Amino acid sequence: MKKTYLLGLAGLALLFASCNDMLDVNPRDKFTNDPEFWNDQNRVLNYTNTMYSYNFSGYGTGIEDPYFSSLTDDQANPEFDNWTFTSVPGSTSYWSGPYTEIRRCNYLLDNMKASTIADATKNRFCAIARLMRAHNYFQLVKRYGDVQWQDHAITDVNDEIIKGPRDDRDLVMDKVLEDLDYAIANIGSGDKASWNKDLALAMKSDICLYEGTYCKYRTQADNGKGPDNARAQKYLNECVKASQELMNGGYELTKNYGEIYNSTNLSNNKEIIFYRNYQKDMLGHSTVDYTSGSTAQRGITKDAIDAFLFLDGKPLATTTMDKSDKPQIEPYYMIGLDGKIVKTEDGRDSIRVDSEEDPLWVYSMEEPFSVRDKRLSVIVDKYLAFKGYGHARTWLAEMTSSTGYTIGKYYTTAMGASPQEQLTYCNEIGKGYTDAPIYYLSRVLLNYAEAKAELGNATQADLDKSVNLLQVRAGLPGMTLNPEADPANTFGVSSLIWEIRRARRCELMTDGFRYWDLVRWHMLDKLDTNKYPDIRRGANLSDVEDCEVALDGGYAIPYTATRTYDKKYYFYPIPSSQINASQGGTTQNPGW
To answer: Other CB atoms closer than 10 Å to residue 427's CB: what's the count?
Structure first.
């Protein structure tokens, strides 16, 4: 007898409160669970494409969201980002979403055993499923710690595993590593926007760095387990091996930082390992719009600005270069696509475009930024934009930012051949079609350098072929094995590790990784606004006349609310529906 199961993307919890909760009814994902389906190569391929769409959202809404993941010390949301959870939720997609995907993967793995598809193709499908199972279990372990490991699809609401306890997170991560290694060995080749071995290697590099550092810095009091140096070394070495293979794989850094974030075609970019493709008027995103439009941006913080080195290679505390962070007021003329000044008679008064005789006055950070790491001028616009002094890029709506610092690295003129096209594709929700980088060489270089430093066996040659390639691109001196001590390093790590972490922060700023970096380094208290007030401060507006923005010590602040650290935030709370359905088998995380 045929059984029909409906596997939608909206989510299917591991545990079911009732039979009606068992399956998400999305007819677009309908398939008939019989041998005919699993023996058809094209149908199984389409099945794996559903995994692709969910897990690699690119500039959409997904696991790590570029720009939108602003619960960090790098950005400040104008609406205030509190902890993801401050109380126990009844249900959440952070739990159900990954388990839906794990179940989807296990369906494929269960049914490939009897499939008549050729072995090589079957192994590739299984590699895809195990790669995605590893990816989703990693998301669960990051958030919840201990979770139930499932190696087969749960289809019966009375299955005994539903009432079982969570498995130790270390055991689960060892299973994740097994899945990654299987995927690397069997997934085969593909282009940069599809399943391929280098995607699996890049994922392994990331996950093993996380696991190695997490196990090195975790504490019994905060994480339920103390440090495990042997385990840390094992995973850090695995990170090094995966990273080395990619570093020897023919990838090269682009000449200019930022090119990978605002391109309409990443297929031939030598820095890109894996990316999400968008197509004009077919598949779009909103990242360019949200960082160019009239909605107040999640601006860059003073704390983040202060992290960028000066061009002498020294930090804020020790540099002898000009440390001023005050903007200079200067005239600004709106420039059209023809290179001429836009006059008010074009009818776009709402953008505050003035004539050549009556310029718009703006506050510029060009001079303060000119003595800093070159990445800063790409990530952040040189013109401040805040209430009363908005700023408009060419042909776009007037922008403001919660901190005064607006984000410029996603913006491009490549999507507009005419003023109207620029307005449509850069300034409308869902219309952007720049490709989204997901795995890229700079991340791998940073992973390699950090893993080697954490292992304690880094050489100057290791730095020169990894993080120093990024330093050169940023206009900075190369890093040595014994960097000058930064007084800001109060976290008990070596100066080398501190500087590699700084390089990672600056290189990947707004890419969506900062929060989980703080977790694995055991630095989550860095998000306490009382202890670190600069994480909610922005630009220095102390000289702005009749300033309409709230200030703290002369610096813009987007909100007056505070965020207080508690060790319980190292884990998300288990949804109450999950605990209730397990009838005591699943327990709550500490502190919740």
So the answer is: 20
**Rounded to whole angstroms, how far apart are CA atoms 269 and 276?**
13
Alpha-carbon distances of 178 from 13, 38, 181, 182, rounded to whole Å: 24, 24, 5, 6
Which residue is associated with the tokens 């952070």? 94
312-321 long-range Cβ contacts below 8 angstroms, 24+ apart? 312/477, 313/476, 313/477, 314/484, 315/486, 315/488, 315/502, 316/488, 317/486, 317/487, 317/488, 318/484, 318/486, 318/487, 321/371
The pair of structure tokens assigned to 502 is 């700084």
- Residue 500's closest CA among 320, 321, 319, 309? 309
Within a domain: residue 524? no
The amino acid that residue 338 corresponds to is D
Q: What CATH number is given to the structural domain containing 499?
A: 1.25.40.10
Domain that holds residue 223: 189-277+435-509
CATH, residue 566: 1.25.40.390
Alpha-carbon dihedral sign for residues 147, 148, 153, 156: negative
pLDDT in tens, 409-435: 999 989 977 778 888 999 899 999 999
Q: Point out the domain boundary residue: 405, 427, 449.
A: 427
User: What is the tens place of the pLDDT at every residue in 479-501?
Assistant: 999 999 999 999 999 999 999 99
Tens of pLDDT, residues 74-107: 999 999 999 999 999 999 999 999 999 999 999 9
Give a yes or no: residue 208 inside a domain.
yes
Contact 275, 58 (CB under 8 A): yes
Beta-bridge partner residues of 370: none
pTM given for the model: 0.91
- Residue 139 DSSP SS3: helix
Q: Per residue in 277-330, pLDDT tens?
A: 999 999 999 999 999 989 999 999 999 999 999 999 999 999 999 999 999 998
Residue 114, classified by CB atoms within 10 Å of its CB into exposed (0-12), middle (13-18) or buried (19+), is exposed
Contact 172, 162 (CB under 8 A): no
- What 3 state SS string does 69-135 have? CCCCCCEECCCCCCCCCCCCCCCCHHHHHHHHHHHHHHHHHHHHCCCCCCHHHHHHHHHHHHHHHHH
Where is the domain boundary, 509, 535, 566?
509
- For the chain, count helices (H), then strands (E): 19, 10
Long-range contacts of 51-55 (CB under 8 A, 24+ apart): 51/101, 51/104, 51/105, 51/128, 51/129, 51/132, 52/194, 52/195, 53/9, 54/9, 54/97, 54/101, 55/101, 55/132, 55/135, 55/136
Number of domains the chain contains: 3
519 is a domain residue: no
Burial of 250 (0-12, 13-18, 19+ CB in 10 A): exposed
- What kind and span of H or E run contains 498? helix 495-507
